[in-house]
Write a structure and sequence with these properties.
The protein has 297 residues and is α/β, with parallel strands linked by helices. Helix content is 23%, strand content 35%. The chain starts with a strand and ends with a strand.
Length: 297
């Protein structure tokens, strides 16, 4: 649901109401005319966050929720390619651990040490058979150096948007060079229509984070697109209220707007061809695109 500026957000207790950016003393409130979305199924993603902290786990999981359905598509692809599987930007194991439960050997790569600890802990709780199939590596994707070979590599959850365009060709070449014959690279990204970005370069969400630890958390998220640099920044202003106190936290994620034609050219230069493309409409200005790419040999 899109709520035009000037209308009211859902009524909530004053102590739990979302705190607008001006209350943090860092930025101004959304400009007049900027829409406020209150539907949790259209939240902007959290591909690259700094700083990470234990208290933000609930927010992180809530923002990844809309991506959860992609596990069916990626798992179906893995069944056709076989393993080993390389999960790039794995986070806390949203895909890696379920893949291991289905018997695939998975190498999970992420730059966030706390996320990898959550992944390993989850795998151990399931049992030694699953834990034994998962190997984790902490590194930034822009510095990726691989040793193994893989039947399937994944850049899921729009992780490709977290890689600077200037560094993306090297990453794609590195991944392609470690795919076995007939292997596949699967990735997804959010495709923005240019007229939509021009018409609405600033977007605002207000939502409550589902938590089950006795803390109430409300968030105002501001998404700002910068067309000259083809980048976007999302700032999350969170108010977390417990029994004794309220804390306010600011998290930011910086991403890049993906140019489909440029990405296709980079894939081709890396020795990959696009075998399949699947589109899912998010709204009238945005869609999610899933690409399946195969090695040329």
């Amino acid at each position: 649901m899109h709520t035009p500026s000037g209308t009211s957000l859902p009524v909530v207790p004053a102590a739990l109401a979302p705190v607008l950016p001006s209350r943090y003393g860092r930025e101004q409130e959304p400009a007049p005319g900027a829409g406020v979305r209150v539907a949790p199924d259209t939240l902007p993603g959290l591909e690259s966050v700094s700083p990470a902290d234990a208290g933000s786990v609930w927010l992180h999981d809530a923002l990844l929720g809309p991506h959860s359905a992609d596990i069916v598509r990626y798992l179906s692809l893995a069944r056709s390619t076989g393993g080993p599987v390389l999960d790039l930007g794995s986070g806390a194991g949203r895909l890696a651990v379920p893949f291991a439960r289905h018997g695939f050997a998975v190498e999970a790569v992420d730059r966030d040490a706390s996320a990898l600890e959550r992944l390993e802990g989850w795998a151990r709780r399931i049992g030694p058979q699953v834990a034994g199939l998962v190997v984790t590596h902490r590194t930034d994707l822009t510095e990726l150096r691989l040793d193994g070979s893989y039947r399937l590599a994944m850049l899921a959850g729009a992780m490709v948007a977290a890689v600077p365009p200037a560094r993306r060709p090297a990453l794609l070449r590195e991944v392609a060079s470690h795919l076995e014959t007939g292997g596949a690279l699967a990735l997804d990204y959010t495709a923005h229509r240019l007229p939509g970005l021009i018409a609405e370069p600033r977007r605002t969400w207000a939502f409550q984070v589902p938590r089950f630890d006795g803390v109430d958390e409300w968030v105002v998220a501001r998404q700002v697109f910068d067309l000259p640099s083809m980048s976007e920044r999302i700032t999350y202003y969170a108010a977390r209220t417990g029994k004794l106190s309220t804390e306010r936290v600011v998290l930011t994620t910086d991403k890049w707007i993906v140019d489909p034609e440029r990405l296709a050219a980079e894939l081709h230069s890396a020795g990959l061809h696009i075998e399949g493309r699947r589109r899912h409409r998010i709204d009238e200005r945005t869609e999610s695109v899933l690409l399946v790419c195969r090695t040329d040999d």
